[in-house]
From TrEMBL:
It comes from Fusarium venenatum. One of its GO terms (biological process) is amino acid activation for nonribosomal peptide biosynthetic process. Keywords: Ligase, Phosphopantetheine, Phosphoprotein. The keyword Transit peptide does not apply. It comes from the Eukaryota. The keyword Ribosomal protein does not apply. Residues 804-881 form the Carrier domain. This is Carrier domain-containing protein. PROSITE patterns: AMP_BINDING, CARRIER. GO terms for cellular component: cytoplasm.
Length: 1212
């Protein structure tokens, strides 16, 4: 038992108090600025039971460090002292060691490993099929659901046996199980990334240190081939883990930076699934002389979608702990997923030779729970056997009650309704109707329609509604499919029968019936259990309607079950019948009223489909519908009820109103589920529930292979029960598009639509090119959205509106677009996109040149690409302002403050040379770097790089390379003052290869990178006080601006102009301060007379690279040539010149002449004549050459003249 002074112990009185302290400590906000790294609380429950709680920010300690801390705490408690930790073992030494490894390039191989292993772009993992949201949301906090399971020791032992059999560890088996489960849950995913943790204690000096040493290692897994075995999956998992552990010294944050991994506030970078594994060989049983037990970890929240922790105990149960992101998944599904994981693990340990493809995705427990939940109580009918018999009984019991009313003034009691039914039924039998005869009802909505429907049932015939709210062609198709023998008409439809294709069908005209027929004249009810009662055709919004075959059993079962959800014996129901008779809800409304002794009000034709008129009937016609003054029931079905509508019901403040939401395909006889919504409940869920299956029904959610799925997992619905029906004419195609119907105030629609079109988070090619506001969404006769009609809506744009919408700048720019586009784009608006109306990157270059020609300021090409709409591009041009006239004397002037009073000291060396290299990540710089580090005369190469893309560097076994992040255009080269001074004392020669080679852009866009950087390097030399030779990569094309000629004053010929200006500035530096400058000029071929074999040698190499890159350059409108020479030859010449340059030699021009010329036309002819290559995707030609260099193109491009059309567009 611990002995502490009373003041250091908090006394608690129950285990719940301990839990409260633990939660409070876990949820406490850690303030790093306070310096309080760890908080420890000792709780006393009794003299024999204490709880020791320790809480800390994860930046202070990782899991291993806590073990060290816990051990040290015990030592301090027992011995009252701890030996000091050496400085070299402190965490800050570890941090310095990591930084040094990075700066010395010791992690370059690890970075290269990940560049080879990982893709260039990362996309977040798909959401699992039971996600509670369709897309990720911004994660404002990390909050997770947690589930835990214990694996018995016998299964853990089997895991270890399987691991040994595959020369792996238990960790590899647990990880492989997670991989198998993820691929099973995500059938459309071909690769997943899983993160693991490494203690990162490779250096024994830090084994007893405290700090956050832990490093994260991302693993990439690809889906295995069909038929893969468990053994191969374990082994590939093992290999991936070992591969990552070999490079565990690379910090995760450095990896993210080097791979340029994008960050998001919605998900974690690279991997979204994390697994932590901990093996406990033997749990501690004592601490500080006390018995120890009940260890519990409460880890900090993370942003991972899925986090699995495995704590394997050799002697007891292995603990599995799974956490899912609360924003994405429910607590129930956290348990479901953990049980699924255990199921996969149990499958794997049964044998390594088992196929991965058939591993269980879901646990048998969850599948059975889903099946059980889908089973409703058995249905025991208590009504009469058919709807017709049930209504007969209601007529007998309610002779004087109102049964039918309509908007035409007709009011029938139950007795009068029964008489009318009998009259029509007798007429049908007299017309030859027998059991199963199909009879159509072709009338205006009225009380007579309802009587005709019930008369058909009583005669044993089959009811087919022919509602005029449907189109004539649709009615024709229904008549053709159902083939009625008799059609019942009224005075409004007698002359329309031929229009619906029923010219030779027997007509039964209600007006001709003998009203004196008494009720008992046809007292026999011919309706039979199980016989066909209704053929109801669906809305047909997806094509031709399909017919649903409903039996009397279907209808009777449905009506009885449905009425139990709302009907009360002490209520006088009044039901509104406003739905089209071809919609199954018309049957629901009819049966709800007449099978329960209620009154059915049939809305007349003039008011159907008009919500305002129907509402007036409910509110104003109180004499006709007395009971509707107190609205009690509202039913929703057919389409999903919106959350907004449910809330609007609450705004009515009708405390007695019950709102029912229902679900069920038409094949279930109207509905299979219904629920009384708690629409006023503040916690009303969204989306709204549709209820549990009705008695007698069973429902199961299955996957695409008809296998059951757990509760909450998306899939297809399978329904069974007494109300399921068969369909005829099914299998019609689905709609081809989705309709988006925003609910916007009228006055805001235009502005919102405009903003939506511009900011919709979709790629440009997916954004709608037009939003059209409709007065109303077209609907079918059943008031469902008519998607077929929407496709046929004509799209028109008023020419006057287009022309008025363009500003002066947009109008002028649109005329230039028309000059460069290959086809007339038609009418343009400020939102027209250059790339969506026929433009491409080459044509954008042509547009840029046209802007220059017309004295417009042409922005960078990348700026134009990013502002591709007419309005955005015009705005960019306006912001650029007028064209600036360049004064070349000012641009190349050597500043007075750099002119020295004392000459520079000689800096020449022949051994132990320190080289300063710029552009080391470029094509030429990369080859130069490789050559320099192999030279024994070179002591060190200092590489100044804007971004630390170390994948572009080379192997450096002797650690000669020193990489410094820098910006040559900034003061002091963008590095610290101390680093600047250090380099100034060490560097012996400078090779300046860095340049912006965007050959399309103007001088202003390239000046900073190409001229200002040269000026900053001259300042660097001056600050050193030594005559450090400067080797400058120029252009052979500068010779055209000799003998007093200067580049264009408008900034044209941008790349060559910057090289000419740099040379002019360097000449003044030579004359003013004696700076030794060597200008390297790659120049074109002196003679273009080369053999066909020489010509094709270059083309053949380019062809091989086309195959390697799996893309080809775009030759559209591009011609000209490139002059080349072997890159090794250029590198050797520059290398030797740099190491043999001596101060005081003054300006020296070194030309590197190209040997061969490759014509674009020859290259294009070969590519386009090859069927396989011509089908490859194309990219702009200069971009392709950039990729070719990275792919190993062995030639250096010394010169190029590329033309577009007949104009020179790119010179090197």
């Amino acid at each position: 038992m611990l002995r502490y002074p009373k003041r250091s112990i908090l006394v608690i009185y129950s285990y719940q108090h301990y839990c409260w302290f633990l939660v409070a400590l876990h949820q406490a906000i850690q303030t790093l600025s306070s310096g309080e790294g760890v908080k420890i609380i000792l709780l006393q429950l009794s003299d024999q039971v204490h709880f020791l709680l320790a809480g800390m920010h994860h930046i202070y300690l990782d899991g291993y460090s806590f073990s060290v801390f816990f051990k040290d705490l015990e030592s301090a408690h027992i011995d009252h002292r701890l030996p000091p930790l050496p400085v070299e073992s402190q965490y800050r030494s570890f941090a310095l060691q990591q930084r040094k490894m990075y700066e010395d390039g010791d992690v370059l191989k690890s970075i290269e490993y990940y560049r080879r292993t990982f893709p260039k772009e990362f996309t977040p993992i798909e959401l699992l099929p039971f996600a509670t949201t369709a897309s990720r949301q911004v994660a404002n906090e990390y909050s997770q659901h947690e589930a835990k399971l214990n694996i018995p020791p016998d299964i853990s032992a089997k895991v270890r046996r399987v691991a040994r059999a595959n020369r792996s560890t238990s960790f590899h088996v647990y990880l492989a199980a997670l991989k198998i489960l993820l691929f099973s849950l995500l059938p459309d995913t071909d690769e997943v990334f899983i993160g693991i943790a490494d203690a990162n204690r490779g250096d024994k000096n830090f084994m007893g240190s405290l700090g956050f040493f832990l490093n994260l290692l991302p693993l990439r897994f690809r889906r295995g081939k069909p038929g893969s075995r468990v053994s191969s999956t374990i082994q590939t998992t093992r290999d991936a883990v070992y591969g990552a552990l070999q490079h565990s010294q690379l910090p995760f944050d450095v990896l993210l930076r080097e791979l340029n991994v994008p960050r998001s506030d919605k998900y974690t970078p690279i991997f979204h699934v994390f697994m932590d594994y901990r093996q406990v060989v033997q749990e501690r049983s004592s601490w500080g002389g006390c018995k120890l037990g009940g260890e519990k970890w409460c880890n900090a929240g993370t942003g991972y979608d899925v986090a699995l922790e495995v704590t394997e105990n050799i002697n007891t149960d292995t603990l599995l702990s799974l956490r899912l992101q609360r924003q994405l998944y429910s607590e129930d599904h956290t348990h479901v997923l953990l049980r699924s994981y255990l199921g996969v693990l149990e499958y794997m340990v049964r044998g390594s030779d088992k196929a991965v493809d058939v591993a269980p995705t879901w646990s048998s427990y969850d599948l059975q729970a889903s099946i059980d939940a889908g089973k409703a109580p058995e249905f025991e009918p208590k009504w009469q056997s058919t709807i017709s018999h049930q209504i007969d009984q209601v007529i007998q019991n309610n002779t004087e009650k109102s049964a039918l009313k309509d908007g035409n003034g007709n009011v029938l009691t139950y007795e009068q309704m029964g008489t009318r039914i009998n009259t029509i039924s007798k007429a049908l039998i007299d017309a030859g109707t027998v059991q199963g005869t199909v009879v159509g009802v072709f009338q205006e909505p009225s009380a007579d329609w309802i009587c005709s429907l019930l008369a058909i049932f009583k005669a044993g015939a089959v009811y087919v509604p022919l509602d005029l709210r449907n189109s004539i062609p649709r009615l024709v198709s229904i008549v053709k499919a159902s083939r009625p023998s008799v059609i019942i008409t009224d005075g409004t439809t007698d002359d329309k029968v031929e229009l619906i294709g029923a010219k030779f069908v027997t007509k039964l005209q209600l007006a001709s019936l003998d009203e004196s027929t008494r009720r008992d004249s046809t007292s026999i009810n011919h309706a039979k259990v199980g016989s066909l009662a209704v053929i109801l055709f669906t809305s047909g919004s997806t094509g031709e309607p399909k017919g649903l075959m409903m039996t009397h059993t279907n209808l009777a079962s449905y009506a009885e079950v449905s009425s139990k959800t709302f009907a009360r014996a002490d209520e006088d129901l009044v039901v509104l019948q406003q739905s089209p008779f071809s919609f199954d809800f018309s049957l629901d409304q009819t049966m709800a009223a007449l099978t329960n002794g209620g009154c059915l009000y049939v809305v007349p034709t003039s008011k159907r489909g008009d919500p305002d008129e129907i509402s007036k009937i409910m509110v104003e016609d109180t004499e006709t519908i007395r009971q509707c003054t107190s609205w009690k029931y509202a039913f929703s079905g057919g389409e999903a009820m919106s959350y907004k509508l449910a809330r609007e019901f609450g705004s009515l403040k009708l405390t007695n109103l019950h709102v029912f939401n229902g679900y069920g395909p038409a094949e279930t006889t109207i509905l299979s589920h219904r629920i009384d919504l708690k629409y006023a409940d503040p916690d009303l869920p969204d989306p709204l529930p549709a209820g549990y299956p009705w008695p007698g029904f069973s429902v199961c959610i299955v996957d695409d292979k008809m296998r059951p799925l757990p509760l909450g997992v998306q899939g297809e619905i399978v329904l069974g029960g007494p109300c399921t029906v068969v369909a005829i004419g099914a299998g019609y195609p689905l709609t081809a598009h989705v309709v988006f119907a925003p609910e916007l105030p009228e006055q805001d629609r235009e502005g919102v639509m405009k903003a939506l079109r511009q900011t919709l988070p979709l790629p440009p090619y997916m954004r709608p090119s037009l939003f059209q506001i409709l007065p109303d969404i077209p609907r079918t006769a059943h008031l469902k959205i008519d998607r077929k009609a929407i496709q046929d809506i004509p799209v028109q744009i008023a020419q006057s509106e287009i022309s008025q919408s363009l500003t002066d700048s947009e109008q002028r720019l649109s005329e230039l677009w028309r000059r460069v586009l290959p086809l007339d784009p038609g009418s343009l608006t400020h939102e027209s996109d250059f790339f969506l109306i026929g433009g491409n990157s080459i044509l954008l270059v042509k547009l840029q040149a046209l802007l220059r020609h017309l004295s417009w300021t042409a922005p960078k090409l990348v700026t134009l690409m990013g502002s591709s709409t007419l309005g955005a591009m015009a705005s960019v041009l306006e912001d650029c302002g007028p064209v600036n006239i360049i004064n070349w004397d000012v641009e190349t002037n050597f500043p007075h403050n750099l002119q020295l009073a004392t000459p520079l000291r000689v800096a020449g060396k022949t051994t132990d040379i320190n080289v300063l290299l710029t552009g080391a990540s470029g094509y030429l710089g990369r080859h130069l770097l490789s050559s320099l580090i192999k030279d024994h005369r070179v002591a060190r190469v200092h590489c100044l790089c804007r971004t630390l893309n170390n994948d572009k560097m080379v192997d450096d076994p002797d650690s000669k390379v020193k990489i410094t992040q820098s910006d040559l255009t900034e003061h002091n080269l963008g590095i610290s003052k101390s680093k600047f001074s250090q380099l100034a004392t060490e560097v012996d020669v400078i090779i300046h290869c860095a340049a912006n080679r965007s050959f399309w852009d103007r001088y202003e866009a390239l000046k900073a990178d190409n001229l200002d950087s040269t000026k900053e390097l001259v300042k660097f030399v001056v600050s050193s006080g030594r005559a450090i030779p400067l080797h400058f990569m120029s252009s052979g094309a500068v010779v055209k601006y000799s003998n007093g000629l200067t580049p264009p004053a408008d900034g044209g010929d941008g790349y060559v102009a910057t090289k000419w200006a740099s040379e002019a500035f360097l000449k003044q530096a030579v004359n003013s301060i004696g700076l030794p400058v060597f200008s390297h000029r790659p120049v074109e071929c002196e003679s273009v007379h080369q053999s066909e074999e020489e010509d094709m040698s270059i083309v053949n190499e380019l062809m091989q690279i086309v195959k390697l890159l799996e893309c080809r350059p775009s030759f559209d409108g591009v011609g000209g040539f490139v002059d080349v020479m072997p890159v090794s030859e250029v590198v050797e010449a520059i290398h030797e010149a740099a190491l043999n340059s001596q101060a005081g030699e003054g300006l020296c021009i070194l030309e590197h002449k190209a040997h061969q010329r490759a014509y674009v036309e020859s290259f294009a002819t070969v590519v386009e004549s090859d069927d396989s290559l011509s089908k490859l995707p194309s990219i702009p030609i200069l971009e392709w050459f950039g990729r070719a260099k990275k792919a190993g193109f062995s030639y250096f491009l010394a010169s190029q003249d590329l033309v577009l059309g007949s104009q020179l567009f790119s010179r090197r």
